[in-house]
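REQUEST FORM: STRUCTURE PREDICTION
Request ID: SP-0412
Submitted by: Lab K.M.
Chain count: 1
Length (residues): 211
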Amino acid sequence: MKEIIVFGATGGTGQQVVHQALIDGFEVTVVVRNKKEYMLEHPHLVVIQGDVLKPATFSEAMNGKDAVVSCLGTRDRKPTTVYSEGVTNIMQAMKNTGVRRIICLSAGALEIPPDATMMMKLVIKYILQRLFKHGYADMRLMEKILYNSTFNWTVIRPPRLIAGEKKGEYRTSINEFLPHLSYITRADLAHYILHHLDDEKTFKCKVEISY
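STATUS: Completed
RESULT:
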């Protein structure tokens, strides 16, 4: 797969996906709200001004793509539909253009790992899940929408994301809890995404990743 379209390209993980994809020789299209503020330029990069909540602004850009990468996110802790409505709009554009593959980011703290320490369970349940309850609720809805679709989707649930260099070494699990979740750099998360775009073992699956 060499032609991808990226949503959420201005966020930390999205920036890494675009950067690494261009280095790896991909043709990359990004959808951003303000094209003038997106400074990255590259011969193999196309920048589209659009809004994931307004499908008419990006539907044509879906033509000819091999895969979609959604790094959508929001810093607002108020109720949101950016994940669920966003992925619904993306999938409609995929359906109209024949694109089958999509990878979406979710969050590791949507569920409490069975091997988590008592302290970690308390942190997830009483801090993270309360602090980000609106975003997490919409992520769960996004996941349900994907699960019920016919597309070749992958949901990635990363743990705590940090800045740092790409190592290319990390642990993953497919449709199972990954023991001892800790953290991962956005660079390595992007590395995993780009190296599993055509991995059929991850189709219609949830993936956990961590060092």
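NOTES: Strands lie at 3-7, 27-32, 45-49, 67-70, 101-105, 152-157, 160-162, 171-174, 183-185, 205-210.
Reviewed by: T.R.
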